[in-house]
DNA sequence: TCCAATGTTGTTAGCGCTAACATTCCGCTT
DNA sequence: AAGCGGAATGTTAGCGCTAACAACATTGGA
């Protein structure tokens, strides 16, 4: 008698409305919106016209339930404020958009418990794929994802083992490369400012690379400093302030360093700022090197020597790998290494 | 005969499985996971134990369809790489997480057509709320959102009209405030480096504030420069490089400026870098001021004078307003102005 | 002219869950 | 012992869409 059940939500019209109005079956309407080519042009136009007239918008929630596919990707990052992540998120966004996928993001605040909670919550929405940052994850996270048989890409490192697929680069090698550059330039007393977050694989690898390369060159172990207390992490793991503090700590620990390598460009720029305040000439009195090649590295005087990473490409790859696997579930998708480059600028 | 239909997806067990196994009705299982308090402790424990044993995870897609609520928020930003946005996204993320909502994000690349496309696509997933950046939107976007009767919050400006709700601050007044500061300090020949993206309300307001304040002080119109071609925008509307170029353009246009105001801190830091390269003393030969109070403003020597904004609070507010409105659809939710502060540092 | 192959449209049976209502259970009062 | 109210649980009827298959047109070749 009335137009429908009490449970009809909001004001949306449904495929059934359009079908009735256009004088076709429900399935034909579905086809018009999902695979327009499978419907004759005449029918298609009639249905679309009716749909527009009724302000119809397909309810993808219903479609998801019926088809078992959500076209939704879950992305997990440590922090949303980190510009590294931002670049690779943009890469994913650009790929996913043209492939008609959407994504949800959540941050873990560098905590494995939160990561597990986030992954659990995401899984309830049955994403078609998941992207994780890094390759170290809690046992529970790993089991959860493996049991769900959902395609997973881990990013920013290429050192396994992986849950499923991965794209990134060899942080270990990259760190050796830039350390070697400093050594080749004649710097012998090298300090290192670590990323303050604990246990992130890619930073562990960078530190390992530094140590190995110095050992290979026959040097003393360097001074290593983590500029912030872990408790401060949540706000911003990588900060300019951390770089300044780090340099001061290094100077206290061993006054005679003549080069500083940082786990990220942001920290390195903080060091440059501190040098400026202290009147230290870069690179004459202190050489500085970073990691990441963010925009600021090229702009800050005298230019920051760094490792160029390819965050955008990592994001793009991750998305592409997921979509490929979703469409071809048996496809074997190999690790994609996006590489890195040493970029030498005025700071060394 | 077999355990179910061909259409059963993946390996997930369902509420029906848990109900059968635990010897209760489907509805009881639903209650255990949705409103645990409405079930006796004995039953709850039995059901949870069974659920865990079967690796059950409630399918929220199905729940969404049945309940007409998705607990999903759609967030639209111009760019994912912009650290302004990143801060307010983090604010939303933190609020939404504790309120058990998830969110999807998409970027428009500063294009109104893309904004409309994004909003259209999001609406198909029937989000419970939408957050837009800024208060200027295409006619179609506005109509779409109004017709959908979905709660909407617009952010970063408080000058209406609004689609629904809004939180932000008065960019116009903030720009007047920092301009007045420069005037009070005795600077008379002030250049302005605008944000290169076109037509963003908050930047229009900032420019308007600058002009009005200078007029009120009885000064000449200032030199205004937009550092990049609009074509370059998509990558990064606000860049250090843009600041450097902007200063050079200003110097060409009118060599005798003694202060520069920038539409964002990033641009202003670019100006500071360029000063350093040119050997200009800040603030003696050139005063510099920014907008935003990003972390770098406090760290870059000699400290950047700026307007502190409250991006995190804007994000938090936006999420809170949405959730309030979702729970109380008739609630009248007033504009929330988060204010701003002038922060004076060494650069002026 | 007839039939197979192809293209187009329709019918059926859910996807997994929850709102709304119905029923049962339990402890307590009278 | 009967009656009552509230708490706990169950039953019913979809939410709006799509997979799978069925049926019907249309075309062109034998």
From TrEMBL, chains A, B:
- Designated name of the protein: LacI family DNA-binding transcriptional regulator
Task: Quote the InterPro entries the UniProt record gives.
Answer: HTH_LacI, LacI/GalR-like_sensor, Lambda_DNA-bd_dom_sf, Peripla_BP_I
Q: Which keywords fit this entry according to its UniProt record?
A: DNA-binding, Transcription, Transcription regulation
- Please give the Gene Ontology molecular function terms for this protein: DNA-binding transcription factor activity; transcription cis-regulatory region binding
Protein's UniProt keywords contain DNA-binding: yes
Q: Which residues form the HTH lacI-type domain?
A: 13-67
